[in-house]
Amino acid sequence: MKYQFPKPSGEFAVGTFTYTIKDQREEALPVGGMRSVAARVYYPVLKENVEGLSRAVNLSENMLKGFKASFHVAPNFKKNPDDNLSECYPDAPKIDGKKFPLVMFNHGYNSYREGNSLLCIDLASHGYVVISVAHSHEALCTEFDDGSFVLADTKNTKLYDPMLGGIIAMLKLMKSKGSEEEIAAKFDEAQKKYCKYMMGRLPEWIKDNEAALDYAKKNLSGMIDFEKGVGAAGHSFGGNTAYALCARNRDFVCGVNIDGVLFGDYSNDVQTKPFLQISCEDNAKVAARVYLRHTKPVYKALFKDMRHIGFGDSKFTMPIKSVVGKLDANLFHENICKCHLEFFDAYLKGIKSEPDFKNNGTVTFSVFPPDIRS
Description:
Elements: E1 13-26, E2 34-45, H1 61-71, E3 89-90, E4 102-106, H2 117-125, E5 129-133, E6 141-143, E7 149-151, H3 163-174, H4 180-194, H5 196-219, E8 230-235, H6 237-248, E9 252-258, E10 275-280, E11 298-303, H7 314-317, H8 321-324, H9 329-349, E12 363-368
């Protein structure tokens, strides 16, 4: 199979590098040891400065091992090795004297740091620095700068406990009727019964971001404009993390959740930052809590003919419609990038007063004004 990844649409080419933080945190998972955080940075560079440079490898050999260990299959690039190259350049020359706003990105549970690289690269090409944070043992593979790596800790993962009861409860929620308040209450009841493990992981993912951000403040201030604050984004549990960062950390000024439900105890949280919830039709209802208790506008983007796993590079690397949805991959990519750019251009760059979202045959938008009950 030949993979054809979309080109970045912005005025800049994109450079990339990684960094690893040996955090002073004991690992809360049963694997033990100290928590290590691995991050990949995507950043704008001048197009003329990447001429003659080699592009970055998209999926390393370690990452392909992670695919096989978690899913028993992996993309095959043996016939066309060039298909496994990203549209970004390792350690490309930075733009002297130029700073860009920062977006912190989080992958989904059992996804990986580069799982949404196409979106991150496109954002960087439009003048953002994007730091994608890996969550060790909970990504299908996490690579560190010393050459070591760890695969997903599938033995201790308990997405639902018991599994069958949790799956049935969530399927019922996806089809439930009622107001946002009623559906959110049903979800909270279900997660307290079946999802205690996932609820407990949210604080650790928040700390991973705070460690990665602290490193960036100390070491990357020459390329990042921190005066504008920081944007948060993520897919699935990573989108849940983006929501929590905006609700609980003053550094974050706006955020995007790509098809994630809010696992965790949010009973005392009020969302005080502008927020965008992106959902597929299957999961539209289980994200109900996002639209409650907020003092700034919350937007809803509903994608047609999409499945949860398709909200990432998998749309191109695993083009199985029953898994990633029927929506054309390039049409999906164009629209998911536009959603992020409209939102972050308004609330992070500040170049417009509000995002100019337009409905089309792929995605429809709604806006929820500040909830006065907050």
